[in-house]
Specification:
Elements: H1 2-18, E1 32-33, E2 43-45, H2 47-55, H3 59-68, E3 77-83, E4 87-92, H4 94-107, E5 121-125, H5 137-155, E6 159-166, H6 171-187, H7 202-215, H8 224-250, E7 256-259, H9 260-266, H10 268-278, E8 282-285, E9 288-291, E10 302-305, H11 313-326, E11 331-337, H12 344-353, E12 361-366, E13 369-373, E14 376-377, H13 390-397, H14 399-406, E15 415-418, H15 419-424, H16 430-450, H17 469-490, H18 496-514, H19 522-546
Parallel strand pairs: 5-6, 5-11, 6-7, 11-12, 13-15
Antiparallel strand pairs: 1-2, 2-4, 3-4, 8-9, 9-10, 13-14
Helix pairs in contact: 1-3, 2-3, 4-17, 5-14, 5-17, 6-7, 6-8, 7-8, 10-11, 13-14, 16-18, 16-19, 17-18, 17-19, 18-19
The structure holds one RNA strand.
RNA sequence: GCGCCUGUAGCUCAGCAGGAUAGAGCAUCGGACUUCUAAUCCGAGGGUCGGGGGUUCGACUCCCUCCAGGCGCGCCA
């Protein structure tokens, strides 16, 4: 509709130019927007004000001239007005709104999908938590955002994949293994010094205890290094299992779990460094191997191989991103916590050093989640004992409310998550408001069925009977869905879906209060039934994108 | 010190490819169930959009500056 309208305006301006009323060289882009206030119409354009400053006449005259040359053959427009300082407001005819209902019915669960993605292959990498402890609340935010974003991209015509990068190599892992081994010895009464900076959470002791109960004290015989190795693997597989399970409970199913170790084993890191050296971006200094990231705007050059011969995390990450790109992705979207934002510059530099434009890598920097308990901050470090895990949160709050809550704010904003609040106010959570609207519609349908009501399709219904303000407002909101999906996907902002779902639910509740669906008037009931059914469809589609269920009753 | 993010109603936040009278939820106060679920609806009060400059016909939105808070600036991951 937007395109049709702007085309209509464009041709009106062309005709006005010919008639000599408007004298300009080139017609600027016509910007159409939805006014905040509905009394200003369905669409509005500022084109008259833009042109007026070029032609040096009053915007009102220009607007008048454009309107005079409008040729609305299809009768899309009910009314066109000049308002305020020179806005042209367009009021769409109801006939157009009724078409929206027919379209929703025709497209069903595909209503809202589009093809702005044009099949572009995009990979979304998110969560990627180190496998050294249970998933915490912060990971939940990235799981919700990443998974929903991938849903959105798919809906918008991208070919999207979800990937989890497992940082199963390096110092942190080693310390983790040492920590579990130390707890094991401790449980068996052998004094052993706990590693410096080790993981002190109770879960470490739990893993050690489990091994002890299953296999006794046989690992006491091993050397310290061997023991560390054994416990590292035990703990690793257990944590990974936990991670997969919890993410699955969150509703986030990954296509690929990529292990950092494979990069080390396969020699991919060396190969990547060699490639970069051939390209002339690598040099040796102070016994280490460096990448000249400053060539591509980084603050300083970065170490690839340490003095001790070990590759850095950065070197592995470059090999990883090279691997992704060689798998054929056109775009890589990484979701990182704000504590990694200083890393973006060097990674983009590395992408360019590999010979790709920096735009292929998009990094969404998400601000951190502040965990509160009754207003008091709770530390979320993996190393401190006191911690609330994502698993516990899911158990107490549920997937729907958890996901919805995590998606209610833009990723730029830090999120305060008060556990007490989430638990105690769970029935006041906006997610229930939206779900209730869906359940209400289901209830109407059940009622209709019980009464032997015979519904008809949107094609056969007398939709022009839908003329109440609350009915038309609801249809307008339904029509907006396609634009919302497109914008959310293109701008990578899944959180606007929660706002949309709440708005839509609110308009349905108003409609419900003001208009009885099943009444004595059969034709009116049929038309309203179509509207209710379409509302249910769009609510479902919106909730599906954010991974929240649409219950039939509550 | 430098970089990124944030600052909007009592509270939590939307709005920010510049647009008309700045919105919602919660909280407070007052109404609406013999009728498809009241987990709902209707109404009221509540604001120097952190401060100050600038660009513009027009700024919460863009630019500069200052203030406040968060995060980051490793041969850690």
């Amino acid at each position: 509709m937007k395109e049709k309208l702007s085309d209509l305006i464009f041709r009106a301006i062309e005709r006005a130019k010919k008639s000599g009323e408007i004298e300009i060289e080139e017609t600027p882009e016509i910007v159409l927007e939805r006014p905040k206030e509905k009394i200003h119409g369905d669409w509005a354009t500022n084109i008259a004000m833009v042109l007026a400053s070029q032609v040096k006449t009053s915007p009102l005259k220009v607007a008048k001239s454009i309107i005079d040359h409008l040729d609305d053959k299809q009768h899309y427009l009910a009314r066109v007005e000049i308002a305020g300082p020179g806005f042209i407001n367009f009021y769409l005819s109801n006939a157009w709104l009724y078409d929206v209902l027919r379209e929703i019915e025709r497209k069903g669960e595909n209503f809202g999908t589009c093809n702005v993605g044009q099949g572009i292959r995009v990979q979304v990498e998110f969560v990627s938590a180190n496998p050294v402890g249970p998933m915490h609340i912060g990971h939940g935010r990235w799981a919700a955002v990443g998974d929903s974003l991938a849903n959105l991209l798919t809906a918008a015509g991208y070919d999207a994949q979800r990937e989890f990068y497992i940082n199963d190599y390096g110092t942190q892992m080693s310390i983790f293994g040492k920590s579990v081994a130390a707890r094991y010895c401790e449980l068996l009464g052998r004094e052993i010094s706990f590693p410096e900076g080790g993981y002190e959470g109770e879960y470490v002791r739990d893993i050690a205890r489990e091994v002890m109960e299953e296999e006794g004290g046989k690992y006491l015989e091993l050397s310290e290094d061997e023991r560390e190795e054994v416990f590292l693997e035990r703990a690793y597989s257990q944590v990974l299992e936990h991670t997969e399970r919890v993410l699955s409970e969150m509703g986030a199913e990954f296509d690929v779990w990529f292990s950092e170790r494979t990069l080390h084993k396969s020699g991919a890191i060396r190969a990547t460094i060699d490639e970069l050296r051939e390209k002339g971006y690598v040099y040796d200094k102070d016994g280490a191997v460096w990448l000249r990231t400053t060539t591509f705007g980084d603050d300083k050059d970065r170490v690839l191989i340490r003095e001790n011969g070990e590759p850095t995390y950065f070197a592995a990450d470059i090999a990883y991103h090279k691997n992704k790109l060689e798998r054929g992705f056109d775009r890589l979207i990484n979701i990182w916590g704000a504590d990694h934002h200083g890393y973006v510059g060097r990674m983009k530099a590395a992408i360019q050093a590999l010979g790709y434009p920096s735009e292929v890598l998009e990094v969404i920097i998400g601000q951190l989640v502040n965990l509160l308990r009754g207003g008091e901050p709770v530390r979320m470090s993996k190393r401190t004992g006191e911690m609330v895990t994502l698993e516990e949160l899911l158990q107490e709050v549920g997937r729907d409310a958890t996901r919805f809550f995590f998606l209610m704010r833009g990723t730029d904003s830090p999120l305060d998550f008060d556990i007490e609040l989430a638990k105690s106010q769970s029935s006041e959570n906006p997610v229930y408001y939206v779900q209730y609207a869906h359940a209400r519609i289901c209830s109407i349908m059940k009622f209709a069925e019980d009464r032997g009501f015979s519904p008809v399709s949107a094609e056969d219904a007398l939709l022009e009977l839908l003329a109440e303000e609350s009915e038309l407002d609801l249809i307008r909101k339904l029509a907006e869905f396609e634009e919302i999906v497109e914008r959310a996907a293109l701008s990578r902002i899944p959180h606007i879906l929660t706002k949309y779902a709440q708005d839509l639910a609110a308009l349905f509740h108003v409609f419900y209060t003001q208009c009885r669906v099943i009444s004595e008037d059969l034709e009116l009931s049929r038309a309203r039934f179509v509207l209710a059914r379409c509302s249910r469809q769009v609510l479902r589609n919106a909730l599906a994108l954010i991974g929240v269920s649409a219950p039939g009753s509550m």
